[in-house]
Amino acid sequence: MKNIQTIVVDSKEQGAEKICGLVREELEAGRLHVLGLATGSTMEPVYEKLRASDLDFTNVTAFNLDEYVGIPATHENSYAYYMNHHLFSEKPFKETHIENGMAEDLDAECVRYETLLKENPLDIQFLGIGENGHIAFNEPGTSPDSVTHVVELTESTIAVNSQYFKEGETMPVTALTMGISSIMQAKKLIVAAFGEKKRAALEKLFAGEVSTEWPVTYLLDHQDVVVITDLKL
Ligand code: F6R
Predict the structure, then answer these.
(1) What percent of the chain has pLDDT over 70?
(2) Beta bridge partners of 37
(3) Ligand 1 center from residue 192 Cα (angstroms)
(4) Measuring from atom 2 of ligand 1, which residue has the nearest CA?
(5) pLDDT (average), residues 148-172
(6) In the list 106, 109, 194, 233, which could disulfide-bond 12, CB 3.0-4.6 Å?
(7) Per residue in 73-93, pLDDT tens?
(8) Residue-level pLDDT at 171
(9) Which residues surround ligand 1 with Cβ inside 6 Å?
(10) Average pLDDT for residues 139-162, to the nearest whole number?
(11) Ligand 1 centre distance from Cα of residue 131 (Å)
């Protein structure tokens, strides 16, 4: 696929190293001003490598893909907390943005976030992939025209992500997420997928047919996608 460059690695650590290399290239070429970030287990080794690197993000603005509704930034399962813990506490950015899942008016919050994104076009967007093919929290069935919106998480995503919540804690079933169109506007997409659980989603992508049921296949319509995976497909 001419628009998708695939880099096959032996491990997620090696994948993380590659991603850091791509970020370094863009940063040193003066092409990285706005960086879109993702959370989740896939990104942890990436942030570990970025933290340990000498890369300087003090002139870079960061935007995160998504956030749960109803848990504050101080909650250890919020994505705001994740980002502070895994990256921002050690790597200062010029500015960091994430949707406010505690906003009283969630629709207004989505409009605010999308406006900020339009004012600060993404140079690179990191993406992980859900087992059900979601990107950010754009679950199967999401329109390609979607912008930042409120989403009800699917059973599959709740089942996968509930492992991170402590016993007795209820996992939010609602989230705010950049839409497909918000993501597709990024100049470059760096997609990481490690482990067998991501095989079905990657197979759909490489099958080359866009399907609403597998949001990851929307990436087929983007001009500059790099997929980093340890799966041999
Ligand atoms: C995270 C996000 C999600 C994850 C995906 C994979 O901000 O938007 O789409 O990238 O669910 O999660 P992990 O990496 O935990 O397998």
Answers:
(1) 100
(2) 64
(3) 10
(4) 136
(5) 94
(6) 194
(7) 999 999 999 999 999 999 999
(8) 94
(9) 38-42, 65-66, 128-130, 134-137
(10) 96
(11) 9
Residue closest by Cα to atom 11 of ligand 1? 130
The per-residue pLDDT for range 125-135, each reduced to its tens digit, is: 999 999 999 99
Contact of 18 with 225, CB cutoff 8 Å = no
Q: What's the distance, Cα to Cα, between the start and end of the chain in Å?
A: 13
